[in-house]
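User: I'll paste a sequence; please echo it back and then give the predicted structure.

Assistant: Echoing your sequence first, then the prediction.
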Amino acid sequence: MNKKLITWLLFLALSLIWGSSFILMKQGMKILSPYQVAAIRMFTAGLVLLPVSLRVLKNIPREKLLMIFICGLIGSFFPAFFFCIAEVKIDSGLTAIINALTPLFTIVIGISFFNKPFVVKQFGGVILGLTGVCLLFLVENKIEWTYLGFAFFVILAAICYGLNVNLVGKFLKEISSTQIVAVAFLMLIIPSFLILFFTGYFSLNLTDGHVLLSTAAGSTLGILGTALATIIFYTLLKIGGPLFATLVTYVIPFIALVWGFLAGEKITIFQLVCLLLILCGVFLATGKVPIVRRKKLVEAASNALD
């Protein structure tokens, strides 16, 4: 199968999974606390990947284990808690909008700390896509400004994602996506279990239907939205590049619109126009752009004068 086709199929699958995660978080927090939902998400992801992690652990260079643990914390553990805390007060639409800052943070962090070149065309694509996302919810009056204090947690999550993308790209290039994810979540099983224990989850009536439903929502987040989705994300990161991988955050609000349509909500022409802006931003930012450095410009100018 064509590599470009595979890349886009992975992109769409990841968009669908992560775009649906906001509904699952809301469902889980109907009964459980945000800390419990996030911990269940991390714990079940670790359990599902346990057979894989025990098999691949021996193949991981010991000097890479600390970095894998750090990437697990930054790229999955902390954001899971930040999102759940934020969604106690802010709606899913606002969460998705702020999460769309991830590509921008990826670029800024890459340029600032990882010696990545500045590419005007890619940066313009990120801004265009983000503009489409913001307009989508600003004009539809779906931003509740009263709760913007909680938006800071989503900003922290987006910063974590941007940092994690650059760390994986720089320090873990030689390790497969499956190995990174499996070993990272193996290390996160114990912290997740301790959070569940100290927040009183095991003291709840675990046979109650409502508790089971909320637990199922958190577990689905762990199995699909974390374990499977993170493997897809790291695979996309390696074959499509850091910026392309994080642009999935632009499509997440659109998935939320689809869920709304299925629930009987109306999709307007303006929403579709905003979607077009988002997709144009994705195309612009992920297109192959020649990077002309200052030295090459000087050389070209000298040749022209000669």
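The two ends are 49 Å apart (CA to CA). Confidence is low (pLDDT under 50) at residues 288-306.
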